[in-house]
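Sample pair:
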Amino acid sequence: MYGRYTQDLGTFAKDEAARLRLQEGDTPRPRRPSELLEYTQGRCAPCRVCALQCQRFLISKVGEDWVFLILLGLVMALVSWAMDFAIATCLQAQKWMYGGLDTNVLLQYMAWVTYPTVLITFSAGFTQILAPQAVGSGIPEMKTILRGVVLKEYLTLKTFVAKVIGLTCALGSGMPLGKEGPFVHIASMCAALLSRFLSLFGGFYENEARNIEMLAAACAVGVGCCFAAPIGGVLFSIEVTSTFFAVRNYWRGFFAATFSAFIFRVLAVWNKDEETITALFKTRFRLDFPFDLQELPAFAVIGIASGFGGALFVYLNRKIVQFMRRQKTINRFLMKKRLLFPALVTLIISTLTFPPGFGQFMAGQLTQKDTLVTLFDNQTWAKQGINDEFEYLGILEAWRHPRSNVFVTLVVFILMKFWMSALATTIPVPCGAFMPVFVIGAAFGRLVGESMAAWFPDGIHADSNIYRIVPGGYAVVGAAALSGAVTHTVSTAVIVFELTGQISHILPVMIAVILANAVAQSLQPSLYDSIIRIKKLPYLPELGWGHHEKYNVRVEDIMVRDIHYVTLNCKYRDLQQVLHSTKMKNLPLVESAESMILLGSIERTQVGALLSNQLSPQRRLLTLRQKVLSEDGHRLSDSSIRFQVRGATVLEDAWSGCLPPSPYHPIPPQISTETSSGTSARPALRKPLKPALKRVPSSPADSPPAGTADHTGIALKSLFCANAPTEPTEVR
């Protein structure tokens, strides 16, 4: 039915267009626009007209999607390359300082600890001062924004600057932090700022639905330019940020992510970092026989263990944050000393990774990139636990220790990096958790691979051929499995394929990632959903395993029925009673207690501000003057508005014809009021209700007068419905 309907509609549109062309066939050709007439005179008139038309064509094409996506990909590639260059420079400076002080261990320790502490402290302070919204990953906030929730100051230029500079300093310190999540946030901010800029050329960029589509494409660009993995970036952004993904955004994400990844790798070649465009972590596993079927149970064990490890990582990260918040003494102290917590955490982690100290048992001098390069190495480090059978070269020397074997080093590395990464991701700086988890998973896979190589020193026998076990393949499987378990995504497998440049281990990687997701989803929410719960963002996460019966729960089963509300004709005393009896941040406004028709809602703070504004002495005196001038036509002096209180004459500032008396200046009982002789009471006019979202006039002088009624009810009505219904009275 749908196909036939669209076909009939298209045929009708073509027939209608043909009919209109036939009707307009006898009409004269349209004249040139008046703005082009000034260019049609002179010797170069055709050139001027052509140039103007080309200019208009280019300006109109700026609004096309492909131009926007090219600009987005180009900007993000430049930002990613510049940040990587700055981060590499910072890490190289730390190594230079450490290597230049090799004559004194104490000075080496001071340089090793002070350098990251200064960078992390600067990042935390700069972010808190400029834009606190830049703290953290950014993916939980983007999930909330793509659901339609407006989060203030999350997609502004100020937040963009704070995120870029803060993330560069945080990663340059060498702490176990990641950049994939922050890059998703940075790309989204780029898309929002580009939309705001390009709205100067076309108003369709102000469309909210279009901006949401561009934000969805920007999330893919963030991952694509971070790892040079456009396919995995698109799939990862769909899994992480979207519950319902519009297929029309599919090509936008692929186009922008591919262009961004291409420019990012071209810049690396231009800077002489690479000879040609290759994978970020190129591996050289054998392709003729990458693994044997007998190794599949080992890959399955990696997946199941990674599922438990991912759930434990999310649980540990959440418990650390909750502990810091629930301890009121610690929380109050850290709120006053905001930079103390990141400095203390950095000091502890830097001390433990000091290479001459405990860091010698966990390859403490290696950066995250060097660690991944060594873990993905296709050579076996140890056979039966004996280190001497393998010659360590270059950065592989960091994994060798004379008094322990490689298994002890890998176990210590996994255990220490696990809790260090969970603790470091709670620092109030722009940071992510994907890359540290990725490295831990690679180390766990390497440990299993080295164990398999030790158990089968001669390799797996198949068809009279001997194929030695490749521990680097196990590292690839472990990295994909653990990162997939923490984020609850399957697309990490595709990211690994693009990172390593090989898909020879596609089957074991997919088996491990699926098993890890199955285990992790049954135990804990994803890391991003956990952060959403901690921050209490307005987002409903997916229900995990064992909670499907909650799909039958209705709103009436969980809603609060005893709600304090404000009616349209509510009196001042009733409004004060509502404010004192409830702590709700928003108060519902209904027509009456009988009908209970919802007209809208108002924030508690806004009610207090409106009351203090409406009931101020200056406002009452100004309102009384305006109404008297508009109805009587003469000016009322200040001396005529007076009343006698216990023998003293004071300026009347607690009574007006349309506002209730102030609670700070109550009217004494002995004061009598009289209606001035120049005014007469009018019958109250009942007006229809106005829409709840219509803006209320800023001053009561704009409201039409009505008859005398209860002053408190009229004040509330003028507050919400802009009806000021009383005549001014004069108090003598």
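Strands lie at 460-462, 465-467, 566-567, 586-590, 598-603, 642-645, 648-651, 673-674, 730-731.
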